[in-house]
Amino acid sequence: MPFYILLLQAFLAAPSLAALFPRSNQTTQSAAAQACSQLATTLGPSLVQSSGAQYDGTTSNAWNLLNTDFQPTCIVYPQAAQDVQTAMKAIYNAGSHYAVQAGSHSAMKGWNTVQDGVLISFSQMKNVSYDPVTDSITLQPGVHWDEAITALEPLGVAPVGGDDVGTGFFLGGGLSWLSTSQGYAADTFEELDVVLVTGELVTATATNQYSDLFRALKGGGNRFGIFNSSSAAALLNATAKYTRETTDPKAIAAVVFTDAVVEGQVYSVYHAFLFYNGTELPTSVFGDFLSIPAVETQLGPLSYFDMSFILGLENDRGYVEHFGASALVGEEALFLDAFNHWSNFSTTFASSFNESTLVFTPILDSQIQAGRARGGNIIDAPHGQFASVLIEQQFAAGIQDISPALQNGIDLLFQQIPPSAGLPLFLNECDAAQNVFATYGDYDLLKATYAKYDPTGFNVAHTQGPIGL
């Protein structure tokens, strides 16, 4: 697959933080202790740990440095679905807070760890297998995508996956280099083994009695169960036009604007990652990008295996990360306006972070139609030809939390880059206070499905995750 890299130098009011995080108090601490005591007895010390090297390695390994501050009452390391069932039953019966960690690659504070609760870590469940008869891949929830891609590449199989993020990537929908022709990554689900909050194990497919749950998990996050310059202007205009006009499902693009702070100075670096599943980059699709003068270009053939690692691995630890999301139709004025607001934000708060990043990922209509052909998903985007927008900040080690002044700046930036009407936000790249579910086309179905499978609201009350249910 030929690729091209272009390098250029150059909503609603947020709820209170208390509403976003399950409260910890003497009652919840007691509930967690009760669940952990029971699990230590039923599963044994090798699978349930409250201290030691493995415990410390898990708590310190979160991608977002802020999530390393959490100390679970115990960590459960299941090795089979039955272990997950046992853990969830104990958590449910005790009324304990809990969290689930697959790849631990989340910018949202507390979404993959917990204070005074039970953490279920899937680090011991990382098997990858391929069945050539059914042409299907089976993944255990602890596998990272670099591991999955490496295991499958010798078999000639290309999963619709990410880079080194974990399988939680699926539950937010999942944007892949193959999405333009295959849909969201979650659209490739064939069957899901799901442990509900009560500990019941169900298998959900598009056609069985759990078809509503199956659809809800395609973008429903962790709420339903545990699933086993002038150059800048030219680049923005090219990206907006590509987003609006490109219909070729063989074409893939992502455009990244980064302001990096080095010794107090801001350095701007812009990348266009352009791929085409063919023998060349057709000028009819990428001509506007190719005409922009670049400091550095790389042009040549890549396998999907090589392509999956082109952005580098996402397993670097030691930084505090923060995400926010928007979604824009392909209009030049909207893209330029978003860039200007982001650039002003980066300049204003340059002393607060290492990097500030703005990413446009075009979602072609071919992606939406490919997903619908597979049965659709709970996101239910009305159409393609829009860009998913990621607003990201990376902070240095030592920061304990985002300051009120910086948070006000981030909130203002979200207001200045609102999503275009009717477009869904991308759950994997949202701020914890953004109600992503409310932007989904099937929001009412999502709420009804959640109420059906968790009628007491246990998940929302006892684990951190997306708001809106």
From TrEMBL:
Q: Which InterPro entries match?
A: FAD-bd_PCMH, FAD-bd_PCMH-like_sf, FAD-bd_PCMH_sub2, FAD-linked_Oxidoreductase, Oxid_FAD_bind_N
Q: What SUPFAM superfamilies does the record point to?
A: FAD-binding/transporter-associated domain-like
Give every FAD-binding PCMH-type domain span: 68-237
Signal peptide positions are 1-18
Q: Name one GO molecular function term.
A: oxidoreductase activity
- What's a Pfam family in this record? FAD_binding_4
The answer to keyword Signal applying to this record is yes
Which UniProt keywords are given for this protein, alphabetically ordered? FAD, Flavoprotein, Oxidoreductase, Signal
UniProt lists the family membership as follows:
Belongs to the oxygen-dependent FAD-linked oxidoreductase family.
Q: What is this protein called?
A: FAD-binding domain-containing protein
